[in-house]
Amino acid sequence: MKTGVAARLLGAFLLWFGWATSASADWHVAESDNFVVYADDREKDIRRFAEYLERYHSALEYVLSRDVPKPSPSNRLTIFVVGGQKDIRELTGSSSIAGFYIPRASGSMAFVQDITFKSDYPSFTTIILLHEYAHHFLISSSRMSMPRWLSEGSAEFFSSASFNKDGSVKIGRDARYRAYELAGSNSVSVEELLDPELYEENRGDRRDDFYGRSWLLYHFLQFSDDRQGQLSEYAQLMAQGMSSLEAGQTAFGDLKSLERDLVLYQMERRRAYLELPAEILTQTKVTLRKLPEGEAEMMPIRIRSQHGVNEEKAQEIVLDAREVAADYPSDAGVLTALAEAEYDAGNDDAAIAAADKAIALDPSRTNAYVQKGYAMFRKAETADDRDAAYTKAMKPLGALNRLENDHPVPLMYYYRSFAERGMEPPEDARHALERAAQLAPFDKGLWFQVAMMQAQEGKIELAGLSLAPLANDPHGGALASRAATIRKLLDDAPEGEAFLPPVIIDMPDVVGADGNDNDDREDDD
């Protein structure tokens, strides 16, 4: 799987995984309604880990009053447990990242450290994963624009969850790991939290306690008797178009008074939290299986591919994948991983051949259809008869659609099969692209593409609504900037008339499906 920024972080990772290609690795996969967990660990720990994650998902639904539909199998969050703190840092090339999350339509995933359990307060590795899943849940269950403080404050609020033996879950416990931040005297003010420009202006070289203060404000507004309903009002005002600062001034009142209240709240030795009994949480079945020897040996290679590669690393990885595949020529999991490695390396015919063998052995291998479709689409770009080539390229993705009707990739590529030929996509293809975005709301590049399609159809108001979360995304980077620029231009565009962005706007290639040019990795700070 080729990505942009992530591709540049693999150097040390290759060295780390040099020893981890032995078939003796005891890899297991745990599957539940919302998660797929791959780990080289004890069965009981992996199962318990998956059960905790499902209880956490249910707790998020209960506290936020959101009923999230069960995702299709390929749209579940895949979690790779890749090693200790040193290993995850070698994987990312950064000493400040302890885990990360990549949202994309072809399958969102998280890379975390070894599974650890504590009897009371969660370990820091667990906190990281719960923080990132809170982001995933919030994005998946709402299209509301969230300012950075609210996004991070809510994720921090939920990430300190702990799990009791009786099945109950504690939510909203103190962020003990932010104690150092909150002990500082030169802290980020409430006004700076609400006003991103003011925050950046004053940021300077001071110690940044943005995450800690965001948690504190969110926690205070959740539990303060005197301020009940203010947080909901703030969110509603923002949804109606108010800026974060204006909404805060309206919903919270005098910000200096709120600042004083927050200082006093920070000084309290004990703060409230929620304890949700087991009976109000959904109990979800977890299935666990040990990976066959070949697939276990391929796991380190698969993780490298899934994490993201550049052209140079792709050539190294495909050699390793071929070596394992030579030893296990009848393992569908091995052949599926080989197909991905061959595609990343630019070897389309080899990718198609490996995918065909995997599908013949196990027709349920969804990623084999995806990799075959990717390779055939790339071949279609330069085919003599492009119409015939794109029609043929849709066949494996059509088969995947029949196998898993709500897989986003076939829906996206159906639209692309027309757009890439310069043809006007028919109405069902346009609906398919919108449906893919609904299934994968966390894929920002996909939503950008949907918004541009809607604008070109003259659906100006709808396009503006699709762009709003992107334009206000605090982690959106260049894509957020482009979305904000286009959204502003849409303000003057007449409804019902096709809108085309000016040539001067650098339009990104945001196909979204395979992660190319859409590296939306969320790192833990």
Q: What do you see in this structure?
A:
This protein has 23 helices and ten strands. By secondary structure, it is α+β, with helices and mostly antiparallel strands. It has four domains: 1-145 and 277-310, Glutaredoxin, CATH 3.40.30; 174-272, no CATH class; 329-440, Tetratricopeptide repeat domain (Serine Threonine Protein Phosphatase 5, Tetratricopeptide repeat, Alpha Horseshoe); 443-525, no CATH class. The strands form two sheets. The protein has a seven-stranded mixed β-sheet with strand order 9-1-2-3-5-4-10, sandwiched between helices. A three-stranded antiparallel β-sheet has the order 6-7-8. A hairpin with a 5-residue loop joins strand 6 and strand 7 (169-171). Helix 5 crosses helix 9 (210-223). The longest helix has 22 residues, at 43-64. It is globular, with a radius of gyration of 24 Å. Mean pLDDT is 87; it is low at 3-24 and 510-525.
**Major β-sheet strand ordering:** 9-1-2-3-5-4-10
Query: What proportion of the residues form beta strands (DSSP E)?
Result: 5-15%
Our Rg estimate from Cα atoms comes to 24 Å
Question: How many strands?
Answer: 10
The description of the largest β-sheet is: 7 strands, mixed
CATH class of the largest domain reads Alpha Beta
- Poorly predicted runs are 3-24, 510-525
CATH topology group of the largest domain: Glutaredoxin
Shape field: globular
Number of domains: 4
